[in-house]
Amino acid sequence: MAESKYLHKSHNVSVLLYHVVCTVKYRRVVCSEQVDEVVRDVCLEIAQRYEMSCLEMGTDRNHRQFLIESVPTYSPTKIVQTVKSLTARQVFARAPEVQKQLWGGEFWGDGYFVTTVGQHGNEHVIATYIRKQGKEQGYKQLHKQPLQLELF
After folding, report:
1. I need a labelling partner for 146 at 20 to 30 A (CA). Which of 2, 9, 47, 123 fits?
2. pLDDT tens-digit series, residues 100-150
3. What is the pLDDT of residue 57?
């Protein structure tokens, strides 16, 4: 598991971690290799464009789990909104057969689960939980960020 690091900004230093769970609309099982690849790629692109990164991602049939690190300027709602909107748009563009399985033109369900994660006590526990989720049903790890060490 990639570990979080202190994010140094001009007026603050922070480590904010969120465990986010998003379900596919109608809890349909539309996960495929192609959809998994699109979600992973889009989340990695989000990390380049926004001040947030996915430390861990996983899928369990009809939902996705993310361990996301971000800065204080983004609320948990904004983080989830960004991830859900950008991934949904790209899933429909790159895997049009998914849109046929989900009537109404939405990939994600309306709700989500989000909780904060403590860096020292719970970060590893949540990442392990995400990895172990759905072992009986074929859990598949979509992304694991390599550890990055920085000096100053």
Report:
1. 9
2. 888 778 999 999 999 888 765 567 777 777 777 766 566 677 787 765 545
3. 92
Number of compact structural domains in the chain: 1
Radius of gyration from C-alpha coordinates of the chain: 15
Tell me the C-alpha distance between 89 and 57, whole Å: 18
Distance CA 114, CA 70 (A): 13
Q: Round to whole Å and give the CA distance between 26 and 110.
A: 10
44 falls within a domain = yes
Has residue 30 been placed in a domain? yes
- Helices in the chain by DSSP H: which ranges? 33-49, 76-94, 96-101, 123-132
Amino acid identity of residue 149, one-letter, is L
Could you tell me the pTM of the whole model?
0.76
Reference 88, options 23, 15, 3; nearest CA is 23
